[in-house]
Amino acid sequence: MAVKAGFIYVLTHPSDPYLIKVGMTTRAPEIRLKEHNAEFDKAAGKVVEATGQKWIIKEYFSVEDTYNAESVFFHRSPLTELPYALTNELLVLDDKHMNWNWVNDGLKTAKSIGIRRNTSQPPISKPKPKKGAKWIEAELRNSDLMPIKGYGNGITKVSFQCSQKHIFRISGFNVVRFPFCPVCEPDRFDAYTLRKVEVCE
Known about the structure:
Blueprint: E1 6-13, E2 16-25, H1 29-36, H2 43-51, E3 56-63, H3 66-74, E4 86-87, E5 90-92, H4 100-112, H5 133-139, E6 146-147, E7 157-161, E8 167-171, H6 172-177, H7 191-196, E9 198-200
Antiparallel strand pairs: 1-2, 1-3, 2-5, 4-5, 6-7, 7-8, 8-9
């Protein structure tokens, strides 16, 4: 893979302070931002379409090898360990595993990494999140939610029931972020995630 200079950028979204996007581009970051805000078939664009709010550039900086810089940012703990840390190209921060200190440490490494030693080899690809019903079940152990039988589809939308018998569908990584019933406690959710919940009659 050819070495290309460019930029690493960080986007934030007004709908959720824990939702960010970190990416690379060989063009002006402002151009890439416009694409993210207009491509409704992509993960970032779907957030814009659902909320009516656009992504904002938090920061960006130039790098010598965009692919290498992006690779060192993503290929580290907890992205290689947590099922919900990376999903659909968006990052979900939390207070327990990932926060802005973690992001800033990764950006610092990306700034200083330089060109990869063996330019004939591509950088290590982004880690894929681990999935599984056992992980969801373990994370919900202290909540009043329980999965409905047949829910084991990883981080795709699955069904859950609260102690008041409300049944709803939500992705596994979102139910771990918000282990509450959207009918009983809608205020515990951010607006974007609440719109994605499907309440069953």
